[in-house]
Amino acid sequence: MKKMIMLFSLFLSSMAMADCQNTFIDGQKELCYEYQWVSGPHLNGGHGHHGHQMKRPAKPLASSVRVLFWKKSDIDQNPVQVEGLRIYPWMIMDNGMEHGTRPETLRFQEGYYYVEGIYLMKMMGYWEMRLTIPADYNDFNPEFDYVSSFRID
Ligand SMILES: [Cu+2]
Fold first, then answer.
1. Fewest C-beta atoms under 10 Å: which of 17, 71, 86, 89?
2. What is the pLDDT of residues 9-67, one digit of tens each?
3. Distance from the alpha carbon of residue 106 to the mean position of ligand 1, in angstroms
4. Rounded to the nearest whole angstrom, what is the distance from the C-alpha of residue 15 to the centroid of ligand 1?
5. pTM for this model (two decimals)
6. Which CATH number covers residue 94?
């Protein structure tokens, strides 16, 4: 019986591990997170060119994504609030240059972080969302000071 229980808890913890596709280290705490696009991702915010001339450029569409954090050890995946969190879009261009976009907003509601007002331009390269807890907002370098990221496809 004891063996059964052990096997079962091993099974449960491996299931929890399998669910932890994205990790975020918050100090000593190891968190998992998952994300879901609420709107988009729209790759036209800023340069909405249509195929034909004459047409007015499309109004830039903001994308938004929601992110849920939980403690890695927590099988129930209870939402965790992350003090000082920042989640921002970042572009890595094919020519080696990198840059951001307009400032996004972040709010916490009913366990989820909502990142809103994400404007993604369609360019040669790819966008990713980066997650971090900036130690010092005045001395923050978005190119290097992030601890986790996920690619926008
Ligand atoms: Cu670019």
1. 17
2. 665 555 555 589 999 997 778 999 999 999 999 997 554 444 455 566 667 899 999 99
3. 23
4. 38
5. 0.81
6. 2.60.40
